[in-house]
């Protein structure tokens, strides 16, 4: 489980002191916390000055620790992957790379686009939290209206279900919602968003949309997810 996010973590985040799970959690926290965004912008300049002011010998020691840490995590990830056959999240600090998700079996198209090394998907700061969560998960492909495609990655939580959506082939302007539908027919809105022109995953805007949110419905109670527009049109159905 990812540790609880605190506003005071902004300093540790700016200095690169958080571990990968906490860094991803705090990156998600930043999306909805303008005060932390402002403080981070101020601290990033201070962090850069501190880096330049450190003696060369300390920089060399830190680089050596990073190298050793990265090698250790890679070995642990490989060993765990062999034992569990599952998905392993590791961490390395070489060359600006901050997270490695080792995946087995066929990689998703989104993962292939991001690049893989020895079966591992490489994540860095360019990945937003929703995209990173999608890439290290197991997508469930949906059936869309003509030209629309997408999938969801699910995570069971004590409070319900965390869902991450990848959506492409949608033209804007539109207003959409991701809705979880239980086996008894109960509907729970996971998240909503606006699609600007020209859209996502379309000519002129080829990148897909990644969004995520939560539902109080337990994962075992969910029958399907639907992407619907404010006009009531269904763009995508993902059967769980």
Model description:
The chain has 240 residues and is α+β, with helices and mostly antiparallel strands. The protein is built from six helices and 15 strands. It has helices at residues 10-14, 20-30, 34-53, 56-84, 109-114, 129-135, and strands spanning 88-90, 97-102, 116-117, 120-124, 140-141, 143-144, 149-157, 160-168, 170-171, 174-182, 187-195, 199-200, 209-215, 222-229, 234-239. Strands 6-15-14-10-11 form a five-stranded antiparallel β-sheet, with no helix packed on it. A four-stranded antiparallel β-sheet has the order 1-2-4-3. The radius of gyration is 20 Å and the shape is globular. It starts with 9 loop residues before the first helix and ends with a strand. Mean pLDDT is 75; it is low at 79-115.
Reading side by side through the largest sheet, how are the strands ordered? 6-15-14-10-11
> Into which percent range does the helicity of residues fall?
25-40%
Beta-strand content estimate = 25-35%
Number of strands: 15
Large-scale geometry: globular
- Poorly predicted runs of 5 or more residues: 79-115
Please trace the helix and strand order, writing H or E for each element: HHHHEEHEEHEEEEEEEEEEE
Q: Mean pLDDT across all residues, rounded? A: 75
Give a quick summary of the entry.
This protein is an alpha+beta fold and 240 residues long.
């Amino acid at each position: 489980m990812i540790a609880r996010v605190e506003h005071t973590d902004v300093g540790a985040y700016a200095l690169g002191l958080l571990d990968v799970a906490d860094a991803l959690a705090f990156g998600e926290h930043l999306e909805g916390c303008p005060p932390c965004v402002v403080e981070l912008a101020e601290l990033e300049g201070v962090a850069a000055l501190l880096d330049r002011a450190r003696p060369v010998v300390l920089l060399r020691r830190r680089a050596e620790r990073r190298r050793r840490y990265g090698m250790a995590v890679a070995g642990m990830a490989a060993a765990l992957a062999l034992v569990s056959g599952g998905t392993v999240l590791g961490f390395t600090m070489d060359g600006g790379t901050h997270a490695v998700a080792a995946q087995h079996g066929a990689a998703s198209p989104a993962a292939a686009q991001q690049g893989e090394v020895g079966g591992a998907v490489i994540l860095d700061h360019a990945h937003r939290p929703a995209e990173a969560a999608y890439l290290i998960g197991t997508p469930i492909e949906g059936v869309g209206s003509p030209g629309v495609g997408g999938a969801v990655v699910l995570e069971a939580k004590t409070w319900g279900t965390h869902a991450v959506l990848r959506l492409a082939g949608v033209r804007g302007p539109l207003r959409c919602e991701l809705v979880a539908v239980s086996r008894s027919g109960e509907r729970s809105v996971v998240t909503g968003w606006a699609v600007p022109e020209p859209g996502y995953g379309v000519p002129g805007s080829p990148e897909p949309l990644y969004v995520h949110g939560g539902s109080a419905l337990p994962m075992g109670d969910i029958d399907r997810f639907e992407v619907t527009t404010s006009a009531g049109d269904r763009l995508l159905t993902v059967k769980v």
